[in-house]
UniProtKB/TrEMBL annotation:
<dbReference type="GO" id="GO:0000257">
    <property type="term" value="F:nitrilase activity"/>
</dbReference>
<dbReference type="GO" id="GO:0009435">
    <property type="term" value="P:NAD+ biosynthetic process"/>
</dbReference>
<dbReference type="GO" id="GO:0008795">
    <property type="term" value="F:NAD+ synthase activity"/>
</dbReference>
<feature type="region of interest" description="Disordered">
    <location>
        <begin position="451"/>
        <end position="472"/>
    </location>
</feature>
<dbReference type="Pfam" id="PF02540">
    <property type="entry name" value="NAD_synthase"/>
</dbReference>
<dbReference type="InterPro" id="IPR014729">
    <property type="entry name" value="Rossmann-like_a/b/a_fold"/>
</dbReference>
<comment type="pathway">
    <text>Cofactor biosynthesis; NAD(+) biosynthesis; NAD(+) from deamido-NAD(+) (L-Gln route): step 1/1.</text>
</comment>
<feature type="binding site">
    <location>
        <position position="521"/>
    </location>
    <ligand>
        <name>deamido-NAD(+)</name>
    </ligand>
</feature>
<feature type="domain" description="CN hydrolase">
    <location>
        <begin position="4"/>
        <end position="256"/>
    </location>
</feature>
<feature type="active site" description="For glutaminase activity">
    <location>
        <position position="123"/>
    </location>
</feature>
<dbReference type="GO" id="GO:0004359">
    <property type="term" value="F:glutaminase activity"/>
</dbReference>
<feature type="active site" description="Proton acceptor">
    <location>
        <position position="44"/>
    </location>
</feature>
<dbReference type="InterPro" id="IPR003694">
    <property type="entry name" value="NAD_synthase"/>
</dbReference>
<dbReference type="GO" id="GO:0005524">
    <property type="term" value="F:ATP binding"/>
</dbReference>
<dbReference type="GO" id="GO:0005737">
    <property type="term" value="C:cytoplasm"/>
</dbReference>
<keyword id="KW-0436">Ligase</keyword>
<feature type="active site" description="Proton acceptor; for glutaminase activity">
    <location>
        <position position="44"/>
    </location>
</feature>
Amino acid sequence: MVDIRIALAQIDTCVGDVDTNSRTILEWSRRAAAEGAQVVAFPEMTITGYPIEDLALRASFQRAARAAVQTIADQLVADGLGDLTVVLGTVGAPQVTRTSPGTRPTNQALVLQGGAVTASYDKHHLPNYGVFDEFRIFAPGAEPCVLEIQGRRVGLVVCEDIWQDGGPVAELAAQEVDLLLVLNGSPFEEGKGHSRTDLAVRRARELRAPVAYVNMVGGQDDLVFDGGSFVVGEDGSVLTSAPQFVEHLLVWDLAADGEPEHRGPIAPPLDPDEEVYQAIVTGVRGYVRKNGFRSVVLGLSGGIDSALVAAICADAIGGDNVYGVSMPSTYSSEHSKDDALDLAKRIGAHYRVQPIAPMVDAFQGELDLQDVAAENLQARVRGMILMGLSNSEGHLVLATGNKSELAVGYSTIYGDAVGGFAPIKDVDKSQVWALSRWRNNVALDAGQIPPIPESSITKPPSAELRPGQVDQDSLPPYDLLDEVLDAYIEHAEGRAELLARGFDEEVVDKVVSLVDRAEWKRRQYPLGPKVTALAFGRDRRLPVTSRWREPHA
Ligand SMILES: Nc1ncnc2c1ncn2[C@@H]1O[C@H](COP(=O)(O)OP(=O)(O)OC[C@H]2O[C@@H]([n+]3cccc(C(=O)O)c3)[C@H](O)[C@@H]2O)[C@@H](O)[C@H]1O
Ligand SMILES: Nc1ncnc2c1ncn2[C@@H]1O[C@H](COP(=O)(O)OP(=O)(O)OP(=O)(O)O)[C@@H](O)[C@H]1O
Ligand SMILES: NC(=O)CC[C@H](N)C(=O)O
């Protein structure tokens, strides 16, 4: 028996773009063959993109995916790749079962060999927690799948199947496989790479065989897929791994029976700040490109949030595609305007100044708004300007709110909350500073000019909606606020537990009340990349109309 060369194709697909995804599969199959691979494996739902949500239920979509399978199989043979085993993911046929009246298809892995489908596997475990809703759209599979490739037995499963004990992996353990191949659509969250490898190690030990894990890469709405494909050996060590956030072909040889396992290159792990930063860059790039935009526009206030968003965008799509607008009011400080211009120069962004006072005055001449209403008017005039520029020049408008602000509703709805995408909505204010410092340090280490002006990092945060206003007039200091938010939101602790931790009662009551009252505002906030274990949106679903309040003991 000889080695079998396996290529894990960590590619970026686009939901619904069956034709382009099919071409990408063919292109990477050719690459794999050129590397001498006998098997190439693609991520979960490669033909359709992932996650497809209710597109799965459309008969026309199911037909298009089915037709693509045969087109790919035929083209592989036409290209002289009939001997290559291609393993990919797609949407399977609708199932008529007791719980499924025939509209729910399966989440399927297919094996193409010699111009035909020679095996198929339907995902057993359908994740239905966090961001996932797969029970709604898929019917579960029931049969395990073992491929015979050059006399070796390769078990095939899909993503969630390895996250659950029992099921197909347990069945395969009784069937003596030589390798487990796992096709994945595993969204990024900070530190998740370790959970994936730990899990794969457990499965490798159960099966007494290596596990090859191929994950997708790229942005899809609020999800970021980081790739990071890998192979772990029977002994639990990582044998080879791919870098995160880039397309990559990871080539590895399954050793002949009884021979020691082969090792390949290991991608160096990313620093935790770098991992989150790159995830957001990937999310922004994916959203911009896949939705047909070439450029973005945002208000540059001289503050840290808009500066970090602009720096991320310059890294994602190039500074020349970033349009910054300074929109000073009568309350804007000189340093805000200077810092905004400085930032734009550092990242090579387009920059213009559009004072808002004449427009605010025109409104006030008619309405004479007072207090918060007058403050919010300024943010709304800015929102109107950005949407106007988007309509006339075609840029995607970015909202710059961070997770701490979203949590407590500290933004003006239809004002600074306008936009199509919100890059840092899952990054709390403490991490906004950390990511900014990390990005500047990377530039300094490389002998480059740091993108973010130092004063934007060090100045006290201010909305500048009235003279001398700072965020801390209305909110606890951000380090304290972020701790309380983490306990109340991420860890779902109640009022009593927050007080038991030693937080001040007044702070707890204020924060809890602000968070509870802002659900409606969060529901209307633009999409943005999930980078934490619990992002607002699909991870945390609460009623908007709710009279539940944390009990006072
Ligand atoms: N449950 C509910 N369902 C639907 N709508 C609801 C609602 N509750 C209130 N509303 C509506 O919301 C309105 C109040 O919300 P909104 O107009 O946003 O205004 P509001 O939340 O009262 O004020 C905005 C706050 O954000 C601060 N801010 C603004 C801009 C930027 C920044 C920053 O630092 O980044 C901070 C500002 O200083 C102020 O404290 C109400 O007038 C009502 O129309
Ligand atoms: N003078 C301004 N010129 C341009 N845009 C502004 C201006 N003021 C506010 N904005 C926009 O509104 C967003 C909310 O800004 P604001 O200054 O009120 O709060 P912030 O949370 O401190 O944000 P930042 O740190 O970016 O200043 C900003 O990020 C920016 O996009
Ligand atoms: N696509 C899936 O089945 C993903 C679910 C899995 N728990 C993950 O996040 O990796």
